[in-house]
Design goal:
elongated, 87% helix, 63 residues, 0% strand, mainly alpha
Length: 63
């Protein structure tokens, strides 16, 4: 039972780290966005907001 729990926690930590890396990448893209790429920028901004919401819900569920 403990080994299964340990594997699950490691898997969750890995997925959370990946999510944080993707969020950082999207935030970097948004901050460097050229003014001419508004449609693509809005889509990336929506994606960033969705990722942040997913990360927040993950934190709430794990507590």
């Amino acid at each position: 039972w403990l080994s299964a729990k340990d594997k699950r926690l490691q898997s969750e930590a890995k997925s959370q780290a990946h999510l944080q890396k993707v969020i950082a990448h999207e935030l970097e893209f948004i901050s460097k966005q050229a003014k001419g790429q508004q449609a693509k920028g809005r889509a990336r901004q929506r994606r960033y907001e969705e990722l942040v919401a997913a990360a927040n819900s993950y934190v709430r569920n794990s507590q």
